[in-house]
Amino acid sequence: MTMRIYVSRDAGAVAVGADEIAAALEQAATKRGKTIEIIRTGSRGLYWLEPMIEVATPKGRVAFGPMTEADVASVFDAMAADGPHALRLGIADEIPWLKRQTRLTFARCGVIDPRSVEDYRAHDGYKGLERALTLGSDGILADVTTSGLRGRGGAGFPTGIKWKTVAQASADRKFIVCNADEGDSGTFADRMIMEGDPFVVIEGMTIAGVAVGASKGYIYIRSEYPHAVEAMNAAISAARRAGYLGNGICGSAHSFDLEVRVGAGAYVCGEETSLLESLEGRRGIVRAKPPLPAHKGLFGKPTVINNVLSFAAIPFILAGGAKAYADFGMGRSRGTMPIQLAGNIKFGGLFEVAFGITLGELIDDIGGGTFTGRPVRAVQVGGPLGAYFPRALFDTPFDYESFAGRDGLIGHGGIVVFDDSVDMSKQARFAMEFCAVESCGKCTPCRIGSTRGVETIDKIRSGECVTENIAVIEDLCNTMKFGSLCALGGFTPYPVMSALKHFREDFGPAPTRLQAAE
Amino acid sequence: MTAVYEPWDAERGGEIIAEHSHLEGATLVILHALQEAFGYVPEPAIPMVASALNLSRAEIHGVFTFYHDFRHQPAGKHVLKLCRAEACQAAGGDALAARAEAKLGIAIGNTTADERVTFEPIYCLGLCATAPSAMLDGRMVGRLDEARIDALIAEAQR
Question: Both A123 and A35 in a single domain?
Answer without folding.
Answer: no
